[in-house]
Amino acid sequence: MEPLLYISNLEKHIMDDFHLGPINLHLEPGTITALIGNNGSGKSTLLKTIMNLVKPDHGNIKIDNKFVHGENESWKPLVAYQPQTIIGWNAFTGEILKRLIAPLYPNWDERLFQKMIELFDVPLHKKFSKLSQGVQQKLNLALTVPRNAPLLILDEPTSFMDIPSKKLLIDLLVDWMEPGNRSILIASHQIDDIKKLSDYLFVLHNGKMLGHFEKEELTSTYARFWLNDSLSDTSIPGEVSREDRMIISDNPAETEAFLEAMSIKWSNRSSLELDDIITILLNNKKKMGGIQHGSHVNSGRP
Amino acid sequence: MSDDFKLALQLSKPELKVSWSSYIGQYLLYSLFTFLFIQGFNAQESRFVGLDLFFLILFVYGPIWSRVKGLQFQQISGNIWASPTLIMGLHLPVKKQVIVLKSIILYLIGSFPFQLYMLIMLYLISPKVRGIMELDAYVSFVIIWLSFGIYAGLSALSADVGSNMKRNSLSFILSLLLIAVIIAFIFFMPFFVTYGVVEWTIILAKKWSMASAILSIIFAIIGIHYWKNKMVKLMKNTDYL
Amino acid sequence: MELPIKISKDSREPIYHQIVNQFKALIAGGQLPTGTPLPSIRALSKDLEISIITTRRAYQDLEVQGFIKTLQGKGTFVAELADDLKQEVKVSSVHKIMENAINTAINYDYNLEQIKDIFLEILHTYPKGKGDN
Fold first, then answer.
1. Which residue of B has its CA nearest to A98?
2. Residue spans per domain, chain A
3. How far apart are the first and last CA of chain B?
4. Domain ranges within chain C, ordered by starting residue
């Protein structure tokens, strides 16, 4: 299938101290990708580059096979983008904003909009600047998701929202994905978004891409072993961290083979939660100073 | 009407809707200036150079000043200041040309009628002004200044687009110097060339009514195109981080 | 619709396999009768917190093996099963669970004779009437 979003060798230097890329990423229709990274890893910058708000130094971005950074802007109706901080809405009410935005998208879903306004309990006649941050995000979502553009880009859409609303949004997005030809790229620190919504994880660290992983593939790459006895400082293949008798491995097969060969007994082997894996991914990068490691890091899926 | 223009009009509606209070403010401001300029013309014998300065400032920066809260310049990030609704437009499926066209339409709506109002009132109220210029010369004078409001005023509008050129201290000092030189020039102009800016335009309007009016209109048309393209180009090269 | 499907991420059995087997058991056991609509791939992925790649693979397996059928534009439903297929699944799923139990016991260092005793003891104390059909 043609990728809906295609990024190749994207690079961007910002000021003197930040370098994004090289980034390679393909998104297929029907999938949800969570964009994950430490604070300041360049997630928002990447999303803004996709939206042509930031111009790349190198590389290409195509949406539905149309170059984003060219003269032709016909790709724009194919993307609905919710920035982390919305600019320019303060002076307007929800009602005015809807009348501005809805006619710009041919597939605008008025029923979904009304449904979201009702579920999230958003007042449409209040000025945007007078709404609390959580309600602003709700209105923002209600004005973004119903655009029904094939590619939905959300930049930390729920950071100020209450827990029930976050759950509600996950259900709404699951429903929204039903037609099967839409895609979501969502930057989020919410573990529920990552667990319940995402199919793929795209991980950034300080501007560098650590990989684009299928969720179960990533979870199966890690395992935790509880050994019967504590070990001396023998290094174990695959080992990424050790706490007394507990060992975490990013290559369980090798680790297990080694333990068996050395006849080291272990009482339990379990998988890791996604948040633990993300922590390991991002923390290990910090220690290793941004050097690529591990065989599971595949830069850009075929 | 082209599709771009139609869309630009459609996009300017929300801003018009929330701007009514600023338009009332504009009306009051221009009324005040009408009064001020009448005084200025009366004091012309004593060379009131403030008249020139106020005229220029009003026609260049007046329309940008009086925006309602929420539409005023805003820091977008780091060192970019831009019009917030322009950023909003960039997030939507709207061509850059249309975004710029919308800004220009709103600029003209927020300046042209008020400037025209002021110039008409000036003629109706002040016997002094009527004494200086016949009606045909005054029409030419009005056209000269309204056109100036477009080709010079749009330069102030182009700041809407924002830019992220790094502001180093040298360029800052240079731009301050430039402004100081311009102000000084306006102040001392009468000493070098006998008359001030406003007086010169009066002379032009009286001597070559037709030619200066036509030339001004041509400048205004060129100005719109120039600034429109300039703003689109600026947008293409700016990183809205 | 919430299905009584529980996946274990610690198990060595691949996740899609776990889903396939549990669906088979639910269908063969009659908890999911013929024609029951199943959740969409996306909805099930959300409930199980897995990617649609895994869920899709499970559904494809189930469809190939004739347990479910997809009607274009309508969704996925439990298919009609031949009785011998039902029987086969029942036998194999009971077998599998017993095997697992025995594995666990062996991990705790019981021998086969002891395991047999445990099994008979459980059968003995099993509430009367529940298993008499």
1. B14
2. 5-216, 221-288
3. 35
4. 15-78, 83-125
What lies within 8 Å, CB to CB, of A99 at 6+ separation is B14
Neighbours of B57 (CB within 10 A): 14
Which residues, including other chains, have CB under 8 Å from residue A250's CB and lie 6 or more apart? A221, A222, A238, A240, A280, A294, A296
Which residue is associated with the tokens 């999230």?
Answer: A120
Instruction: Quickly list H helices, chain A.
Output: 43-50, 94-101, 110-120, 133-142, 163-176, 191-192, 215-221, 252-261, 274-288
| DSSP letters spanning B192-204 | HHSS-HHHHHHHH
pLDDT confidence of A298, banded at 50, 70, 90?
A: very low
pLDDT for residue B10 is more than 50: yes
What is the pLDDT, as a whole number, of residue A292?
A: 39
Would you state the pLDDT for residue B64?
74
- Reported as a pLDDT band with limits 50, 70 and 90, residue B174 is confident
DSSP string spanning C40-58? PHHHHHHHHT--HHHHHHH
A5-216 is classed CATH 3.40.50.300: yes
- The model carries a pTM of 0.88
Give the span between the Cα atoms of A162 and A20, in whole angstroms. 32
Q: Which two tokens stand for residue C90?
A: 């029942």
List the one residue out of B90, B2, B101, B98 whose CA is nearest residue A76.
B90
- Amino acid found at A12: K
- The domain defined by C15-78 folds into Arc Repressor Mutant, subunit A (1.10.10)
Under the banding of pLDDT at 50, 70 and 90, the label for residue B76 is confident
* Stretch (H or E) spanning A223: strand A223-227
Rounded to the nearest angstrom, the gap between the alpha carbon of residue A91 and the centroid of all alpha carbons in its chain is 31
Closest Cα in chain B, distance from residue A261 (Å) = 54
Closest CA to B11 of A52, A92, A101, A91: A101
**Local structure of A8: helix, strand or coil:** strand
CB pairs under 8 A between A and B: 72
Query: What is the separation of C-alpha A96 from the centre of its chain, rounded to a whole number of angstroms?
Result: 31
Q: What does the pLDDT look like over B112-171, one tens digit per residue?
A: 999 999 999 999 998 888 988 899 999 999 999 999 999 988 888 888 888 665 555 666
B96-109 helix and B209-237 helix, angle to the nearest 10 degrees: 140
Residue B102: strand, helix, or coil: helix
**Residue numbers in C near A178 (CB within 8 A):** 40, 42
Check: CB of residue B154 under 8 Å from CB of residue B107: yes
**Spatial CB neighbours of C5, under 8 Å, sequence gap ≥ 6:** C19, C22, C23, C26, C47, C48
Residue B117 token pair = 């109002």
Q: Which among A216, A269, A277 is the top mutation candidate for probing chain C, defined by the most C β-carbons within 10 Å of its own β-carbon?
A: A216
Q: Name the amino acid, one letter, at A84.
A: Q
**Chain B: residue whose CA lies nearest to A72:** B95
pLDDT band at A290 (very low <50, low <70, confident <90, very high): very low
Place of tokens 């100020």: A160
pLDDT at residue A300 above 50?
no
Q: So what's the pLDDT on residue A287? A: 54
Q: Are strands A200-205 and B80-82 parallel, antiparallel or unpaired?
A: unpaired
Chains A and C touch each other (3 or more Cβ pairs < 8 A): yes
Q: Are A35 and A187 in contact (CB under 8 A)?
A: yes
